[in-house]
Amino acid sequence: xxxxxxxxxKDLTAIGSVSCVEKEVEAAQFIxxxxxxxxxxxxxxxHAGLYAIPDDALGRTVPYAFIQGNSPKTxxxxxxxxxxxxxxxxEAEPLAFSVGEELEKALAAKALPADARADxxxxxxxxxxxxxxxxxxxxxxxxxxxxxxxxxxxGELAGSLFFMGVPDEESYSAGMRAGxxxxxxxxxxxxxxxRLLIDPEPCNVTEDxxxxxxxxxxxxxxxxxxVQGVTxxxxxxxxxxxxxxxxxxxxxxxxxxxxxxxxxxxxxxxPPSWASLRDKKExxxxxxxxxxxxxxxxLSFTTTPDQIMEKLREIxxxxxxxxxxxxDALYQGxxxxxxxxxxxxxxxxxxxxxxGELKKKxxxxxxxxxxxxxxxxxxxTAEKIASGKVNYQNGTVELMEKVxxxxxxxxxxxxxxxxxxxxxxxxxxxxxxxxxxxxxxYDLVQRMSRAQFGxxxxxxxxxxxxxxxxxxxxxHPFDPNAYSDNTPVWGDLYSxxxxxxADLNLPCIIYGPMGRGFHQWTERVHKKSxxxxxxxxxxxxxxxxxxxx
Length: 549
Fold this sequence. Notes:
Blueprint: H1 2-13, H2 23-36, H3 39-43, E1 48-52, E2 61-67, E3 73-80, H4 101-108, H5 114-122, E4 125-127, H6 131-153, E5 160-166, H7 174-190, E6 193-199, E7 211-214, E8 216-217, E9 219-228, H8 243-255, E10 263-264, E11 267-268, E12 273-279, E13 291-300, H9 305-334, E14 352-354, H10 355-366, H11 368-387, H12 392-407, E15 413-423, E16 426-427, H13 437-453, E17 457-460, H14 480-484, H15 498-504, E18 508-510, E19 515-516, E20 524-526, H16 527-547
C-alpha cells in the first residue's frame, strides 16, 4: 500500500491543478479514470462519474465513486484536488509539482527556515505543492477505495463507501457546494444511512508533538459596505460629505472590535478583518468622492448572517452619526475664521439599508421596470465574473452601485450586503439528533492512534482555516433567506444548497496526514503519517462506523 500511495501522489501532484484553472478539469478526469480501471467499477460503471458543477465557467466536475456493501451504513470520504499557486517557490518553481529528489535538492539549496531545514535533513518528509494540502490525504482515500472495492466484489464488505473529489476549495468551494446536491441525491436514490464524513485535510502538529483532529469548521461571512456621500468641490468642502469618513469609521469599529467574536469551549474567532477599503473614483478630479466601498471577513461559531447584518447596521448608523457630528464640529470651528461661512449647522439624517430591504422597496415602487433593470444588470455582472474581469466581491459592489443608481437617492447613505463565499459554521457535537458525535469519534481515533503508533491527539472544535466541512450539516437554527436576500450575486452566479445540507445532517471530521508549510514553498507531508498511520487509522474508523448499530 505504501508504494501505491506514493506513486499515486507523484502522479496526481504532477497535474498542477491550481484553483480556478483548467488543470482542475484534468485532475478530475485522472481521478475518475483511476476508479474506472478497477474491476468493481467496470462491473458497476453507474457507480462512478463526473458530476458537473452547474454554470461553471471552466466546466469543472466532481469525480465520485460509490461502493455498495452489505449494509446501507455509509461513510463519506472526500477531499479537494485544487492547490494554491507556486510563485513563492522562486527559481525552484518549475519543480514545484515534481515530487522527489530533484525538488528536494533545489529546496535544500535555499535558505530554509530552521524547522523546515530540520525536516529536510531528517528525510522524513515529502515535499511539493499540494502534497499536504491536500493531495496526500486524497490519494490515501483513493487507495483505500481500491481495497474496499475488492471486498465488495467478493461480497465481504460490511458497509458502503462514497468518495468525492472536489475542486475549488481554495477559492469558493464550488466543488463541495455541488457535492452537497450530489450526495443528497445519492442518499435518497440508494437509501443511504450516512454515518460520518472524513475530510483528510492535513493535520497540524502542536509544539509538543500532538496531532490535531478537528470535529468542526469555523463559519465565514463576507459583509460588503457601500457608502454614498455628497460630492462637492474641495474649495467648498462643507457643502458635501465624504463617504470615506463614514466607511473608515465603520472599519475602525469592526476590525478592532470583539463584538463579532464568538467563543466555544475555550476557542474563539478572530475579530473581523477588512480585505478591501477604497473610494470608487476611477479618475482624478478636485472633488470629494461620491462613493466608497469595502468588504471584510467575519468568522463565527454560532453567529448567523442576520445577526451579523444587524450588528453591522447598528455600527454603520453610529459611524454615520459620528462622521456627520465630526464634520459639523469642524465647521463650527471654521465659521469664526471665514466670514462667508453662514450655515447654522451641518446635518444629514442617518440612512442605512440592507440590500434585501432596498431591493424589496424598489420592487414595490417600480415593479417590472426594476425587475427588467435588475435582470440586465445581473447579466452584465455575471458576464464579467465568468470572464475573470472582476471577482465576486467587486462584482457584488458593482451590482449594489447599479441598484443605487437606479434608486437615484441624492442623500448620503450606507448600503449593506454579502459577497461570496459563505461558509456556515459546523460542529459535529452540536448537530441536532447526533449530539456528541464529534467527541465520540475523536475518542475512538485517539485510542487507536495512541495504542498502535504512540501518537497523541488533541481535539479542536473548529478548524480555523475554513474548510468544506461547512457544507455537511446545520448545527443551529438558520434562515437561509437572511443570507440569499442580501447577496446580490445569488442565483446562477453563486448559490448554496441549504436544503441539501440540512438533509445530510452529517457528522464530519478533519483527519489526515501530518503536514507543515501549507500554502508556502516549504509545504511538506510526513512520510510515515501519510503512508502508514493515516491509511490504517482511517480504515479502522470507517469499519467502526459500519459496525455500529
